Automatic annotation (TrEMBL):
InterPro entries: CysZ-like, CysZ/EI24. GO terms for cellular component: plasma membrane. This is Sulfate transporter CysZ. It comes from the Bacteria. Keywords: Amino-acid biosynthesis, Cell inner membrane, Cell membrane, Cysteine biosynthesis, Membrane, Sulfate transport, Transmembrane, Transmembrane helix, Transport. The chain crosses the membrane at residues 23-44, 75-104, 145-164, 170-190, 211-244. GO terms for biological process: cysteine biosynthetic process; sulfate assimilation. GO terms for molecular function: high-affinity sulfate:proton symporter activity. Pfam families: EI24. It is found in: Membrane. Coiled coil: none annotated. The gene is cysZ.
Length: 257
């Protein structure tokens, strides 16, 4: 229970730190980036699909005896277009963040570095900016590979359990816990990566605070699914994850990757 309470406390602290003068630019810039990219792709795809539906059903008007159904048909088509916009919003909320994390990883690394230095007062290992960008990008690819094939296995298990009476009630819980672990790992790793802690070492340390990582990731996942909130939750989660790493999981004398 103490680890669960700690996860909530770290998120509250991160919201306060995100408003400070030192960290505010690192929160605002990703927010603007997310709004432009997320909003642009969402509007373009939604407009294209809605236009396609409208064009494809332009000649669906009935005549003669069945003309009284035209009003119902128009209502169904309008409802379908609204449903498309809603489904696209949910899709972008759940999937788009993965792409944003990959693209914005170097910038989030700078944010995690600022938070780390504020808390510890210790400078980061010396590294050129190009080297840092390459390292963080490779780290994101490493994390993507870690969760991708495991997610397929978990999905297979959940799919099998779903069709077993009684036991199927645990299917959603298994997927929720797995997703929470992944997000917790994702945001805590920014702090570990800045200190050049190998990915495998970082994973071993996460296992010593399983409920802290799970709760933190689950709360972030829930916030990610909320429209508009998901646009700025990423830098806030990076701050919280860095605090968790620095105060709960890091050790003196990290090893170079």
């Amino acid at each position: 229970m103490s680890q669960i309470a700690d996860a909530i406390s770290y998120l509250k602290r991160s919201l306060q730190l995100a408003r400070t003068r030192e960290l505010r630019p690192y929160v605002i810039v990703p927010l603007i980036f997310n709004i432009l990219v997320f909003g642009g792709l969402y509007w373009a795809s939604g407009s294209w699909i809605a236009g396609w539906i409208t064009a494809s059903t332009a000649d669906w008007a009935l005549t003669g005896t069945w003309s009284f159904l035209n009003g119902a048909i128009d209502f169904i088509l309008d409802a379908a277009i609204i449903l498309v916009w809603i489904l696209l919003l949910a899709l972008f909320a759940s999937i788009f963040s993965i792409g944003v994390q990959l693209i914005a990883a170097p910038f989030m690394g700078f944010l995690a570095e600022k938070v780390d230095f504020q808390v510890t007062g210790h400078p980061m290992p010396e590294e050129s900016i190009p080297a840092m960008i390459v390292r963080t990008f490779k780290r994101e690819l490493r994390k993507t590979w870690y969760w991708l094939w495991r997610a397929l296995l978990v999905l297979l298990v959940v799919g099998v359990i779903y069709f077993i009476p009684v036991i199927n009630v645990f299917a959603s819980a298994i997927w929720f816990l797995w997703s929470g672990w992944l997000l917790g790992m994702q945001y805590i790793d920014f702090g570990a990566d800045n200190r050049q802690v190998p990915f495998e070492v970082m994973l071993e340390r996460l296992k010593t605070r399983r409920w802290l990582v799970l709760t933190f990731g689950a709360v972030v996942m829930a916030l990610t699914m909320i429209p508009l909130v998901n646009l700025f939750i990423m830098p806030v989660a990076v701050i919280a994850g860095t605090l968790i790493w620095v105060e709960q999981l890091s050790e003196q004398g990290t090893v170079n990757s």
